[in-house]
Amino acid sequence: MSKESRHAARLARESRRAGAGPGQARTGTNVGAGDASATPALSTAGTSGRPGSTGGVSTGGSTGGGSTGGSGASTRMRAGRRERSRLAPKQPFLERYRSAIVTIAAVAVVALAVGFVFIGSTQPAYACTNIFNPSPTPALAPDSSDRLGFFQDDMGNSHVVTPPQKYLLCPPASGNHYNGAGIGPIPPAVYKPEDKKGPSNWIHNLEHGGLVVLYRNDSPGATAAGLQAFRDFATALPPTTICKVATGVISPVVARFDDMPHPYAALVWDRVVYLDTWDPALVTKFYLTESERLDSDGALVAPPEKAYCTGSPTPSVDPNASVAPSVAPSGSAAASLPASPAVSAAPSVAPASPQPSAAPS
Questions:
Q1: Could you say which of 206, 250, 254, 299 would form a disulfide bridge with 190 (CB–CB 3.0 to 4.6 Å)?
Q2: To 10 degrees, what angle do helices 280-290 and 224-236 make?
């Protein structure tokens, strides 16, 4: 036996003593007995000392325990593999963000509502295309036989108002106006500067034969004394001469109005008289002679709406006679106006009052 064969046999015995499997022992014996060319492979197998490995002899490896062990390991790896988690179906966009969308929509609606309220509260109620400012004319006294005030072109009497309502001439003695309880005609009263009663409110009073007195905010009429003078005037205003409409039914309305060239103005339908100082006697004469008028045949030609003129209207006084304010009749609406200490109404000098033929500039 050659030296290499003895060495291989010794290695095989040592391998068996170390507890090598049967397949390995048989493989080592066969090789040692006959095939010297396999010695390097057996040497490698013996050196490795791993159960189930033939060190390069494929037949022994495949038929021995190594093949079974490899198959078992593969099975164990597959059995222990973690299953991939399955994702739930993705919801549509609207379903996923429904709450957020509803919240945003609600906030937007509230913001729009607040915006409209704010815009409505800050938007002017009316706009003036031109300031009614006729050419100056000689002064007229309250006892003059000439007609008081300026004629103003009629601007219609529609009950459709679109804020800001535009008026061709200001202050308007006609035009579009509200038709509803509390907004037009409005209750006769002395309104303070902050009360915000505009043309769209009091033009309806003019349409029914009412008297409207306007004062600018920079005039004495906007002061406490000026407002008291207006209250005294309203308390003393007599009923109309033709239709016998009592004070406090539709007249007078006293309100702030800044878009005019003089501190004061008195209005009836289609007619305006300006005043530089407050004169209650002149305004009373203007109201009694111009708010209600008859034509040559005795037919009532003013006011345009006659809801407050009942029965057969006939003049009770000479419209050309001098008229001064008097105490309101007992039981009239004017008697219910708040009483207050007497305040000097105004200088007794009559203001400049224009002729009816004047035209707006």
A1: 254
A2: 40
